Amino acid sequence: MHALLVVVLAASVFPLYFSFVVASKDNSVLGEAVPPLTPGGNLIENITRVFDTVDFSLAMMNSLIVASTVAISNVLLGALAGFAFARLRFRGRNSLFLLVVGTSMVPAQLGVIPLYMLMSDLDWYGTLQAVIVPALIGAFSVFWMRQACEESVPYELIEAARVDGCSVLRTFWHVALPAVRPQAAVMGMFTFMTAWNDFFWPLIVLDPNDSPTVQVALSALASGYYTDYSLMLAGASLAVLPVVAIFILLSRQIVGGIMRGALKG
Question: What is the CA radius of gyration of the chain?
Answer without folding.
Answer: 22
